Amino acid sequence: MRQDSTSDRYVTPGGGDAWAQEAASTGRRGTQRITAAEEIAASAEVAEALRLAPNTPVVLRRRVMLLDGHPVELTDSYYPGGIATGTPLAEPAKIPGGAVTLLANLGFTPDRAVDDVTARLPTPGEQVELRISERDPVIVLTRLTFTADGTPFEYSVMTMTATGRHLRYQTKV
Asked: So what's the pLDDT on residue 45?
C-alpha cells in the first residue's frame, strides 16, 4: 500500500499529531516512539543549518515513526538550545498539540520551510531500526523551518523507507 505524504501539515501550528492524522486518512495507524530528548553539542551540519557556532548546545528529539506498528521512518529534530532547553522539546514525551504548536506558542511561528530530498542505501544501524536489508533504499528528507524574519529554528532529518512512499510538495505562486 502506498503511503502518501504532504509537508504542509507538518509545519502548520494547531494541527496536533500530523503523522497520526496522515496515517488515519488512509485507514492506517501512525504512532511514534521517542528514543531521545537531550541537549547535545551541534554537529557542523546542524550548526550550519541553524546558523549557530559549531558545538553550540542544541536540543535533539529523536523518534521512530511507526505505521501499523512497523518502523518506517527515523526522525531527528534539532532546536537551538536557547529556544528549546527547559521546554517540553527537551523531554522524552509527546508534546500536546505537537512541537510546531509549542514552538508557535514560544514565538517561533513557521513562515517557510526548505526541504531537501535524497536517496541512498541504508546504514547498518538504519537497517536494524527500520527492519530492512542493505539493498532497500531509504529516502532522506531534511527540513529547515524559518520564522518570517528568516530565523531558522528547527532542523529535521527524516530517514524513511522508500518502498511504497510518495512525497508531494505544493508551491503557491
From this structure: 96
pLDDT score, position 147: 94
Single-letter residue type at 158: M
Which residue in this structure is represented by grid cell 508534546? 95
pTM (two decimals): 0.86
Q: Determine the pLDDT at residue 10.
A: 52
Euclidean distance between CA atoms 118 and 78, whole angstroms: 19
Question: Which residue ranges in the chain fall short of pLDDT 50?
Answer: 1-6, 173
Model pLDDT, residue 52:
98
Residue 109 CB coordination number (10 Å): 16
Task: Please report, for residues 49, 60, 84, 105, the alpha-carbon distance to residue 156 in angstroms, rounded to integers and kept in the order given.
Answer: 10, 9, 14, 19
List, as one string, the DSSP characters of 48-108: HHHT--TT-EEEEEEEEEEETTEEEEEEEEEEEHHHHTTSGGGSSSPPTT-HHHHHHHTT-
- Which residue bears the cell 514560544? 106
Name residues whose C-beta falls within 8 Å of residue 23's C-beta, 6 or more positions apart in sequence.
3, 29, 30, 67, 68
